[in-house]
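As a warm-up, study this chain.
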Amino acid sequence: MKIRTEGIVLHYFRYGDNGMIAHIYTKEYGRQSFIFKGGNSKSAKRKLNFLQPLSLVEVPIDYRPQKELYIGNGTQFLHTFQSIPFQQIKSSSAFFLAEILSKLLQIYEKDEPLFAFLSEAILFLDREETKGANFHLTFLVKLMQFMGIQPNFEENELSEIVSNQEDLLLWQNLENMTWEESDNLALSREYRNNFLQKLLEYYTFYFQDVTKLKSLSILQEVFQ
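Now compare it with the structure written out below.
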């Protein structure tokens, strides 16, 4: 039975002469792949604007457990971005986090708490009043809980990565702060980049795919 389900765009690439294939994390069926045809003309490309990273969309799907590719035509925006595509810090963060999620979210089962977390985070990033400079750090720390890799601070699981009290305190604070509180933290650009490297190092203990991120250098340049 064909239904419409909410989804988050993770990644897309050109397929053939006039098609696109997108990996979308859906609320009902986890990560699924969709093909979009007729993507060559200017008007067709405009219609595929919803394929930008972290877009919140509604996709039609006639789910079959063994099916690997669905027709995506008929997909629509659930939310039209107001600031992410137009602010460099936000757009760079969106590309970066979409690439990480594309590597992490290989599961096909639905996970509604995770989907709710991702949707809430994306909507917060898109608010006009959100600064976004600390968003990627907060996102990665909070995501650990849903990935099952949240550190146990009492047992100091971070001892090989976090070598000073300042890093440890920030890690704990980002885990417990609201999005608004973390958005207002004053951190230097150099410290953001250094702390990000420690977060990524921690992720690679559990997910080896979180390496050689194409968007990382772009994000770091933004914070130079």
